[in-house]
Amino acid sequence: MDEEITIIDTNTRNEKIKNFFINNRKIFFITISIILVLLIGYFSFSEINKKNQIKLANQFNSTIVNFNNDEKQKTTNKLVDIVNKQDATYSPLALYFLIDNKLINTADEINILFDVLINDVNLEREIKNLIIYKKALYNSNFIGENELIKILNPIINSESIWKSHALYLVAEYFFSKNEKQKAKEFFNQILIMQNANNDIKLEAQKRINRDISE
Question: Of 12, 76, 162, 168, which one has the fewest beta carbons inside 10 Å?
Fold first, then answer.
């Protein structure tokens, strides 16, 4: 008797499961179709990105290898195009090459390209902080103190590994302006940092002892 009840219960359960799938087959079909489309789209997108990355790498390497002083504008245009591709690897490299080789002499144009990297490129946090620091370093010879600090504030107000570098840059900026008290304040901030770069901390201490000590 118990075996018969068990068989009946099993058959009833199987029938319910069968009816559930039959009644909801459209939903299952749509769901499976969506999943397949998403998977195909994901792998297609990854493949396209991979091909684009290889193409961009070839474009960058070819531009650098073939660089010569007779075709500066052509090289400049290609590198600016790479920056605007907003690639995490080759866009920063393209901008650094432009700056190092003085292919763009207008600060406004360079700063626009810096802002593309900082605001539009998907970068790791510390890589972005490094680019912010480089932007400040590039501008430090011809901007005022407020503008310099404004550029560096995202680093100064964080626990970034580049914070001591940013503080040192501001301190040296004030020292170059003979504003020694302001310079000392920023050097001292480096000295009390827990994770300050050791070389930067040493240079800050030397500067205070040698040039700012009362």
Answer: 12
CA distance 36 to 166: 49
Rounded to an integer, what distance in angstroms lies between the CA atom of residue 160 and that of residue 128? 10
Which sequence spans correspond to the domains of the chain?
A: 147-214
Q: Which residues contact 138 (CB under 8 A, 6 or more apart)?
A: 99, 107, 110, 114
- Cα separation, 135 vs 142, in Å, equals 12
**3-class secondary structure per residue, 164-194:** HHHHHHHHHHHHHCCCHHHHHHHHHHHHCCC
* pLDDT tens by residue, 101-110: 999 989 999 9
Q: What single string gives the DSSP state of each residue in 56-102? A: HHHHHHHHHHT--GGGHHHHHHHHHHHHTTT-TTHHHHHHHHHHHTT
Dihedral sign, CA of 118, 121, 125, 127? negative
Q: How large is the average pLDDT for residues 130-146?
A: 96
Average pLDDT over the chain, rounded to whole? 85
Instruction: Write down the pTM of the prediction.
Output: 0.77
What pLDDT is stored for residue 37 in this prediction? 54
Measure the CA–CA gap between 47 and 133, rounded to whole angstroms.
34
Confidence check: pLDDT of 6 > 70: no
